[in-house]
Amino acid sequence: MTRFDLTPLYRSTIGFDRLASIFDTPNTASKSASFPPYNVQRMGELDYRISMAVAGFSENQIELEQRGGILTIIGAAGENHENSEYLYRGIANRDFERQFQLADNVKVTGAALNNGLLHIDLVREIPEAEKPRKIDIAKTLKAA
Predict the structure, then answer these.
(1) Who's near 81: CB < 8 A, 6+ residues apart?
(2) Quick one: CA dihedral 99, 20, 43, 114, positive or negative?
(3) Residue 22: how many CB atoms within 10 A of its CB?
(4) Residue 136 lies in a domain
(5) Contacts of 138 (CB under 8 A, 6+ apart)
(6) pLDDT 10s digit of each residue in the chain, 144 long?
(7) What is the number of structural domains in the chain?
(8) What is the CATH number of the domain that holds 112?
């Protein structure tokens, strides 16, 4: 039987979890290392949060842009202190760009940087035309 690895879908898309759960299989693939590390959480029926570890970055070094169905997060590292001598350098201080494919009607509602974590809140806004509506049943129909 063919198995589909949907780990990349979960890592880089928001709002497609219903589709992905249809094809969901046990996660046996090894996760590739990526910078910066991040989590994608489902906060409610229509609410999501991306939390990204951006220690060492300030608000003015991070740029968020939503264009169409793509959310782009760009981090520009600050000064390198090249005249300093590091005995061990374990804290990554490099530029990054991360993109997330958003489902239709998913919008960014806010972002905050707190204790080295960038939190981005998203919500799926269902248009009125797509919301379920109740249809009353009449005893008779009007003749045309």
Answers:
(1) none
(2) negative
(3) 8
(4) no
(5) none
(6) 556 666 666 667 777 665 555 455 344 333 334 788 999 999 998 999 999 999 888 899 999 999 988 999 999 987 666 677 888 878 777 889 999 989 888 999 999 999 999 999 999 988 888 778 888 888 777 776
(7) 1
(8) 2.60.40.790
Give the type of residue at 80.
N
pLDDT at position 135, please?
A: 85
Q: Scanning the structure block, which residue is given the tokens 């806004």?
A: 125
In-domain check, residue 142: no
Q: Where are the alpha helices (DSSP H) in 6-123?
A: 7-12, 17-22
Does the pTM of the predicted model rise above 0.70?
A: no
Distance linking the first and last C-alpha atoms of the chain: 55
Show Cβ contacts of residue 142 under 8 Å, excluding neighbours closer than 6 positions: none
Which structural domain range is residue 83 located in?
A: 7-26+35-128
88 within domain boundaries: yes
What six digits make up the tokens of 56?
């060492």
- Both tokens of 66, joined, read 């939503």
Structure tokens, 17: 């979890």
